[in-house]
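User: I'm curious what two different proteins look like when written out as structure tokens. Can you demonstrate?

Assistant: Sure. I'll show them one after the other, since each token string lines up with its own sequence. Here's the first protein:
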Amino acid sequence: MSIGPLKRRSSWPSSFVTGLIGWNGFFIIVALALHEEILAGKLFILASIAAIAQVAFLRLLFFGLRLDRSLVAAAFWGGLTGVAAVIAETRVTNALNQHRVIWLLNGLYIGMAVGLFLRYFYRDDRRIETQAEAVGRPIDYGRDAHWLEPFFFGAVAYLIAFLPSSFALAVIILVIGAMSGVVAAGVSHFVIFKIARRSALPLLLCVMVGAVQGALSGLLFRPFAPELLLNPLAHGAIAGSLTYLITAVRGRALASEELAIDHD
């Protein structure tokens, strides 16, 4: 059975998606925190350019820079290229001038994260493939093949909860929702479900945690309060609860499928 490139986290298309999500997510979040939401559209373009340039560089020199072997190398080259991308963009636009140091630190953080994720995805995919070959089974990435789903779930949940009235707000909601979705997946899949796998408690905890995280994310939408039906924190709480509920239900279903395969 053919495995699509976006189901293999270490593929070139997946690497670019990883970079685009990271750069756009944190560029928009920092812009909102700095009350520069008016620049969201321009920052989206700048973040996308930085992501494509950084990922192309790191992937082309992946083995030469020893990203496959060294955690330090992945963090170093990721951080360096992240800062370099922001510096390059400050030379062609003044959008980052007012808080230049913050944007440079943001580029450092994003760059390091992208470098580390590229390394992790490469090594983990090779581990899965090696184990499958050792036992003579077809390669199956399991839940990892669905790594993009939480981003989609979060984006949809936030759009439903916030009901944006403008295109600009919709773009910001999509980005914040996507980032919230992956956090929700991490918390629900790897933390909450370890507490009580076979009861309804994990789902209840997911909704509660999601409400808290969502309310906090709602703080980012205070500048858009006049466009919203409810208080931004209320919209955020609804969005977070829905995001965690969807990702938790999906995570449990995928886990059940894996258990059924293992028993076979």
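Here's a second, unrelated protein for contrast:
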Amino acid sequence: MPTPSRRTSTLLALLTPLGVVTGCIYNKDLKLDDNDRFTSSGRATYEIYPGNARRRAGNLFELVTGSAATAPNAAVTMKSAGVKGTISIDGEIASVEGKDHQNVPAGKQVELDEVIEGPARVKMNAENLRGSLAARGGLRLFDVLSLEAITGVGVDSTRMRMRGVDLGITASDEDLLAGFLLGGRATIRPIALFDIYAQYTWNITPSSDWKYIDDATVGVELNLVRYVSLFGGYRWWRYEESLNNESDWEIKIRGPTAGVALKF
């Protein structure tokens, strides 16, 4: 007959695997992936060199009024010829919202400031407001093709919310991040009436938690007058955050974008 100490040891040995299976619930990452979300945006540019006034004539106002063919504008067109260096200061602001849902299986949980254990269905929402102030510089070839690098500072405010369907549990978190902005822009101006562009920026945020924010856009600018343009295109934005004790977030939102650009 086994002694009490041996009986206790045997019972503990049998219950330990069961405790591991039933007691250990692991955090599941939260992934929000949303398409066709509109990003409203606006930007202002001050071109230090060679200067916005030296660009080719032919914006919409000049074409309508016939002023594109006047002698002063022809002289400006001659000054824009050749290969020139460029330097500008850009300020931009953009806003977007995305929604998604996720199933949490048994044995898993999602955690923000509240915990939702599976099996459960979770609805997620992300609201983003971001802005930047950056220097942009590179080369411009015959006022047709520009290749430029971007460096500056970026500020990103992202609010994340999750709600357990039929559970009555809601959790939210808001992150305000400031970091260094790096990127590049390529612009083609076949005629002075419009620009075709592609731009990518990466916000590097110094933090104890790992964070990754990038933003890419392709679009067209319609030059109404020398100092005002309307733009539209398609935009991709991604946000990743790795938290110490909570579920990691990965947010991908993409869709059309449009706004107003001021050029000085």
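A detail about the second structure: Helices lie at 4-23, 60-65, 71-79.
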